[in-house]
Amino acid sequence: MSKRLADFLLTPAEMAAADSAAAESGINSYRLMEKAGAAVAAAALRLYPGARRFVVFCGPGNNGGDGYIVARLLQESGGQVDIFHLGNPEKLKGDAARARAAFVLKGQDIGRYEPQRGDVVIDGLFGAGLARDVPSEVADLIHKVGKAGTPVIAIDLPSGLDGRTGAVLGGAFRAAHTVTFMTRKPGHLLMPGRELCGTLEVFDIGIPARIIRAQTDGRVDENTPAAWRAVIPTEQVETHKYKRGHLVVFSGDASKTGAARMSAMAGLRAGAGLVTIAAPSEALSANSAHLTAIMLHAIDDAATLKGWLEDARLQTFVLGPGFGIGKKARKFVSLLRDRHLVLDADGISSFKDDPQALFDLFRGEPRLVLTPHDGEFARLFPDIAAEKRAGKVDKALAAAGRSNAVIIYKGADTVIASPDGRALINTNAPVWLATAGSGDVLAGIIGGLLAQGLPAFEAAAAGVWLHGEAGHRAGKGLTAEDLAAHVLPY
Q1: Would the pTM count as exceeding 0.70?
Q2: 162: number of CA atoms within 13 Å, CB side?
Q3: pLDDT at position 129
Q4: What pLDDT score does 3 carry?
Q5: Would you say 79 is a known binding-site residue?
Q6: What is the sign of the dihedral through the CA atoms of 164, 169, 174 and 175?
Q7: What pLDDT does 235 receive?
Q8: 259 assigned to a ligand binding site
């Protein structure tokens, strides 16, 4: 099944290139602008039929041109409309100037806008192309609208948001509804952009699919099953537990065993054929009291682990949940350099003083998956984390390239990045996943998928998505134990 255009992600630059290519192919660009304006006007009338006044903010570019068309159509539909413009509208050019000329109502400077009861704002100031902080008069306007609680419909993207990164540039409208055209931008999915867009509507204004597809290589996309479904092992009648892989999860000491058990259970439920918890001898009793289907193996030190690893069937490991930070973790990781490893939590923090020592262990085909949240990311990649203008996708890709690892940069907009330049933005996680132990479950799911033979990037992406689905099944108020119990293989 071919991918729908609405499911593509194009950066603002790529979308601008698509607009230019459409015009060069002979498509009437003003007709495209009219269709865009009509879609926004229709949304305004559908969502706010009782509006007393539609207030249209028009900027100095084509987003403002869309705004003038919206204003004209709303007035023709019987609505009361007032226009407020940024800068001198006489300086508009091309299609935007034509759109303004077709609307006879005289506008006012945005500084003169005062909210009234029953207003609905149509935001046509900047759209997705903004790459600098909003000017002070726009920041003041955003504050005024927000303080009044006036509903906002954004054209393309709420003004003040970076369409490439989803970052706020000095201030941004909080839209109730956003209408964008042909495809989404990364800023629609990345936080805080996703939250500030409100409900998102993607409207097809008629640019041919071949033009849209020609502008993107698809290396940055949304994380959906389409990105990894093809590598999920098919169920076979003759399969057995060894064919489905053996996952090993390392446990901490006797007082810190719960995190490893949640990881192990999640790996088992994600489809691994066998799961073993490797624990210090003094932690065996604490673990065995809570385990049935998961095996136990005593590993007290690096020498014991080295001997166990002579069994070549042991290929996939999770290290970090409840393990403890320090020399022991670093030594264990060095012994696992030739295996598949999900390094999480304490495992990541153990390398904060010398991240390069970790990266140097895992060269060649990517087999290391790192799962940092913001703080852990900054410990491993302090210079990348400090880049002010870089977006989350940029940072995750830079980290993946440096470490030769698959990076799961966690958060409400988790990004999965591969050293080969691919990145996926995850959107299916419910807010109630932010609970203690949730990351331990995620590490186990990914380990279970790696054990079944999935490549590291696809295992990470599928794991993040399955983690989100488990959160929806478990529901609000979930605990990590609930979450692990709701993990299902794809």
Answers
A1: yes
A2: 19
A3: 77
A4: 83
A5: no
A6: negative
A7: 64
A8: yes
Give the pLDDT confidence score for residue 336 in this predicted structure: 98
The neighbour count for residue 476, using CB atoms within 10 Å, is: 9
Strand-by-strand arrangement of the 220-222 sheet: 220-222, 423-425, 415-417, 406-409, 368-370, 340-343, 316-319, 246-250, 274-279, 295-298
CATH code for the domain defined by 225-485: 3.40.1190.20
130 is in an annotated binding site: yes
- The answer to whether the annotation marks 132 as part of a ligand binding site is yes
- CA distance linking residue 184 with residue 182, whole number of Å: 7
The response to whether 156 counts as a known ligand-binding position is yes
Consult the annotation and say whether 354 binds a ligand. no
127 is in an annotated binding site: yes
Q: Is 439 annotated as a binding-site member?
A: yes
Residue 308 to residues 248, 304, 313, 340, 395: CA-CA distances in angstroms? Answer: 11, 6, 10, 16, 37
Consult the annotation and say whether 128 binds a ligand: yes
Was 159 annotated as part of a binding site?
yes
What pLDDT score was predicted for residue 466?
98
DSSP label of 183: S
Q: Binding residue per annotation — 463?
A: no
Instruction: Render pLDDT for 337-346 as a digit per residue (tens, 0 to 9).
Output: 999 999 999 9
- Kindly give the interhelix angle for 456-474 and 438-451, rounded to the nearest 10 degrees: 130
| 70 φ, ψ (degrees, to nearest 5) | -60, -45
Residues 220 and 190 sit within 8 Å (Cβ to Cβ): no
In angstroms, rounded to a whole number, what is the distance separating the alpha carbons of residues 435 and 477? 9
Residue 64 annotated as lining a ligand binding site: yes
User: What string of DSSP letters covers 364-398?
Assistant: SS--EEE---HHHHHHH-HHHHT-SS--HHHHHHH
Residue 63 annotated as lining a ligand binding site: yes
CA 476 distance to own-chain centroid? 21
> How many other CB atoms are there within 10 angstroms of residue 357's CB atom?
12
pLDDT along the chain (490 residues), means of 10: 85 95 97 98 98 98 97 97 96 97 92 98 93 96 98 98 96 98 97 98 97 93 96 66 84 96 97 97 96 96 98 97 98 98 98 98 97 98 96 98 98 97 98 96 98 98 98 96 95
Question: Is 131 known to sit in a ligand binding site?
Answer: yes
Phi, psi of 56 (to 5 degrees): -110, 120
CATH architecture of residue range(s) 5-218: 3-Layer(aba) Sandwich (3.40)
Q: Where are the domains of the chain?
A: 5-218, 225-485
Asked whether residue 412 is marked as a ligand-binding residue, the answer is yes
Q: Is 62 annotated as a binding residue?
A: yes
| Residue 123 assigned as binding residue | yes
Edge-first strand order for the sheet with 119-124 is 108-109, 81-85, 53-58, 119-124, 152-155, 177-181, 199-203
